[in-house]
Amino acid sequence: MNKDKIKVVVGMSGGVDSSVAAYLLREQGYDVVGVTMQIWQDGEQASGGDEGCCGLSAVEDARKVAWELGIPHYVMNFKKEFKDHVIDYFVEEYTNGRTPNPCITCNRHVKWESLLKRSLDIGAQYIATGHYARIHRLADGRYTLRQSVTAQKDQTYALYSLTQNQLAHTLMPVGEYSKDQIRRIAEEISLRVADKPDSQEICFIPDHDYAGFIGRYSDRQLPEGNFVDREGRVLGRHKGITHYTVGQRKGLNLSMGRPVFVVEIRRETNEVVIGEAEDVFSDRLTCGNLNWMSVDGLHGREMEVTAKIRYSHKGARCIIREMGPDLAECRFEEPQRAITPGQAVVFYDNDYVVGGGVIR
Questions:
Q1: How would you classify the pairing of strands 261-266 and 7-11?
Q2: Residue 234: partners with Cβ closer than 8 Å, 6 or more residues away
Q3: Helix residue ranges, H only, 96-209
Q4: Cα 24 to Cα 39: distance, rounded to the nearest angstrom
């Protein structure tokens, strides 16, 4: 089949990466359709503002870029999917003492599951995004992600939960380029978003006030409680567990005469456990909600991999083994700082994604 007969729906956020992705695919001969996802009620931000991939400016910028590229552009309503899979999950995790990663669940359930279904329904064979990652099909037929050519912008960590079917119907042309190259392409073809800055914050909380958002959105104001040490001695009062995460040092308002850190959040007793710097380190973790990518599971064997425990983590060598149908253990060669329940751990074999899960 000629590429000009293959329809690709490109998720266009109004940023430079997805805009250039649409351009690259058009140049390769695909029948490109731009789609911007509307995810806020009445087009409004939960916390005000209109920037980022979810803001009001995204639709307008994407529309103008699509016009410049000569491709059709549509806005699709995904408000319910975003509320059910991202906002409700975010609030539930924080109120249960865990630190969620909403971008990962948005990728899995909204940007892929929901968008792919609608795209296939309108006759597209693929969806495409501006993520810095590469899709690779292995000799055994399985699909996996490979890190982008530039480690600085690699986004495979946030995409580890994609399914085999989703990968089989996805194109990621930006993964073969550096960010500088993408901006240079945008400048060369005079795209208006060539110099548009990247969005850094969680899109629906641009002011970074997670606890305030949870209170406004859910009308649930979690009560104050006790800061305690590891032996259970009361050290002071905290503002509510949604204000804290494992490894946190700033904003504790504890006069201890030395730096102290959050080492655990106990939802059942409404306690935030405080410890020393060394108490934040651990050499193992367990994880659930597993998604295997380059392999279909470990089947009783152990595997040596590199694991990332947060997006900015450089990765560390470890041994992984399955402990049950949806439970795995990761044992690090060296203790790692702030292993945080609710965050993702992603396993790599060189630059290929083996799989990952949610830290318990």
A1: unpaired
A2: 226, 227, 228
A3: 102-106, 115-121, 164-168, 179-188
A4: 26
Task: Give the model's pLDDT for residue 2.
Answer: 61
* Half-sphere exposure at residue 197, Cβ-oriented, CA atoms within 13 angstroms: 4
Q: What are the two backbone dihedrals, phi and then psi, of residue 338, each rounded to the nearest 5 degrees? A: 55, 60
Its pTM surpasses 0.85: yes
Residues 216 and 205: beta-carbon distance below 8 Å: no
CA 252 from centre of chain: 27
Alpha-carbon distance of 156 to 280, in angstroms, equals: 26
Helices (H), the chain: 16-27, 56-69, 79-82, 88-95, 102-106, 115-121, 164-168, 179-188, 210-218
**The predicted structure's pLDDT at residue 45:** 47
By 3-state DSSP, what share of the chain in percent is helix, strand and coil, each rounded to 5?
30, 30, 40
Phi, psi angle pair for 250, to nearest 5°? -80, 150
Q: What is the CA radius of gyration of the chain?
A: 22
CA-CA distances (angstroms) from residue 18 to 6, 34, 86, 103, 329? 19, 9, 21, 16, 36
Query: Mean pLDDT, 10 residues at a time, over the chain (360 residues)?
Result: 81 95 97 91 46 67 95 94 94 94 93 94 96 97 96 93 97 96 96 86 82 85 93 96 95 93 96 97 97 95 97 96 94 98 97 97
d(CA 116, CA 89): 21
Q: In whole angstroms, what is the distance from residue 163 CA to residue 293 CA?
A: 8
Q: How far apart are CA 38 and CA 29, in angstroms?
A: 28
* Closest by Cα among 85, 124, 139 to 108: 85
Q: Write out the catalytic residue numbers.
A: 106, 203
As given in the structure block, the two tokens for residue 111 are: 């940007």
What confidence score (pLDDT) does residue 200 get? 67
Token pair recorded at residue 238: 């905290």
d(CA 293, CA 290): 10
Only one residue has tokens 């040490």, namely 229
Amino acid sitting at position 342: G
Question: What pLDDT is stored for residue 49 in this prediction?
Answer: 44
Cα–Cα distance measured from residue 356 to residue 288, given in angstroms and rounded to the nearest whole number? 9
CA dihedral (229, 357, 39, 61) positive or negative: positive
